[in-house]
Amino acid sequence: MSDKILSGSEVEQKAARIELVVFDVDGTLTDGSINMGAEGEVFKRFHCRDGLGIAAAVKHGLEVVLMTGRKGPVIARRAAELGIAENVLTGITAKGSALQKLAASKGLPLEAVAFMGDDLNDLPALLRAGFSAAPANAAADVQERVDYVTLHKGGEGAVRDLLELILKARGIWSQIVLAYSEEGGGNRQ
Predict the structure, then answer these.
(1) Rg of the chain's alpha carbons, rounded to an integer?
(2) How far is it, in rounded angstroms, from Cα 53 to Cα 31?
(3) Cβ neighbour number for residue 13 with a 10 Å cutoff
(4) What gap in Å lies between CA 139 and CA 49, rounded to an integer?
(5) What is the number of other CB atoms lying within 10 angstroms of the CB of residue 108?
(6) 117, 135, 178 from 141: Cα distances, Å
(7) pLDDT tens for residues 116-137?
(8) Residue in 28, 53, 13 with CA at minimum distance from that of residue 147
(9) At residue 171, what are phi and psi to the nearest 5 degrees?
(10) Each residue of 8-49: pLDDT tens digit?
(11) pLDDT tens-digit profile of 78-99?
């Protein structure tokens, strides 16, 4: 929890230490809508810039994990499209404990882990993460407790905002832009 508003340099310092980024799904990677039919969940809306940000981050050494309390094939399919199929944790109701276990399993201190979430059920993970973030439309009580609030809403580029911040702080964003400037630099979104 942030006791004060962080300066730009403090945000950059925290972001530069990040090796693992964990995202809540509903309200962060999506707009928060839950679309259900008679057979269960039908679809979720994802933003292509978030997808490209994830694919580029992974390609350049940042590990990305999706953590959600929900279950279903839609999240697994999107993760597979982005090359992170093995990094999806579903049915997680205790996100703080799950984040700690995840960091420990990867041999990382929590200071090297970022978490982005949008609602009260994300607070336990947000309060444990070394760097915490929320989309622009996150619950007010969440926004008050994180290190960084993105310019974009969940499902509308918030994930990309955080990833760009981290990758710029780590000094590799310009390499990514250069790679995408060349034909064949990658187009996974």
Answers:
(1) 16
(2) 17
(3) 13
(4) 23
(5) 16
(6) 12, 12, 39
(7) 999 999 999 999 999 999 999 9
(8) 13
(9) 80, 25
(10) 788 999 999 999 999 999 999 999 887 777 777 677 788 889
(11) 999 999 999 999 999 999 999 9
158 with 136: CB under 8 angstroms? yes
What's the chain's average pLDDT? 90
pTM for this prediction: 0.92
pLDDT at residue 151, rounded to an integer: 96
pLDDT at 73: 85
What does the alpha-carbon distance between residue 35 and residue 14 come to, in Å, rounded to a whole number? 36
- DSSP letters, the chain, are --SSPPPHHHHHHHHHT-SEEEEESTTTTB-S--EEETTEEEE--B-HHHHHHHHHHHHTT-EEEEE-S---HHHHHHHHHTT-TTSEE-S-S-HHHHHHHHHHHTT--GGGEEEE--SGGGHHHHHHSSEEEE-TTS-HHHHTTSSEE-SSPTTTTHHHHHHHHHHHHTT-HHHHHHHHHSTTS----
